[in-house]
Amino acid sequence: MTETTPAPVPSASGDDAGFETMRNDAVLCGRAMSSGEFLAGLIANAQLETVGRPDKLARDLWPDADPVLIQAVWDRALAVGFHAGRVSAAPRMFRDQLDRLAGVFAKAGFHAMAGSVARSRRLVAPEAPPHPADGETEHGH
Predict the structure, then answer these.
(1) 23: exposed, middle or buried (Cβ count in 10 Å: 0-12, 13-18, 19+)
(2) pLDDT exceeds cutoff 90 at 139
(3) What digits encode the pLDDT tens for the residues 40-90?
(4) How does the average pLDDT of the chain come out, rounded?
């Protein structure tokens, strides 16, 4: 078996640069679309999991309400839920954000929300490393 080193790809110029831009655009857009389909599957899973049965899904359409308002609420709830999910999956990575936003809430007079964020921060991302007797080690192993 012989090994060969691939020839270097020449740098793109002129028409080649335009083609490279279009190719990169198409590949990256395809990746984004694939990720979007993945997220859509997770959202569909969450919709059914949270209502319990497929026959209850129609309730999520709110047919008697303004569709523009429903879409705005959906978009906002999705953004909030997605971010909350990211934080809940790795709260220690968001320790500084939780501290900062608790302060922003407090400074704006939103003391209940500030306390809620601060409490969550203390519970899931404490300053001191967890005690081994609590069933966790510092690195989660």
Answers:
(1) exposed
(2) no
(3) 998 999 999 999 999 999 888 898 999 999 999 999 999 999 999 999 999
(4) 86
DSSP secondary structure string for all residues of 48-68: HHHHSSGGGGGGGG-TTS-HH
What the block records as the tokens of 26 is 């198409």
Inter-residue contact 124 to 92 (CB < 8 Å): yes
State how far the Cα of 111 lies from the Cα of 32, in Å rounded to an integer. Answer: 39
E strand or H helix that includes residue 23: helix 15-51
Residue pair 121/102 in contact (Cβ under 8 Å)? The answer is yes
Contact between residue 126 and residue 98 where contact means Cβ atoms under 8 Å apart: no
Is the overall model pTM greater than 0.85, yes or no? no
Which among 81, 115, 89, 82 is positioned nearest to 101, based on CA atoms?
115
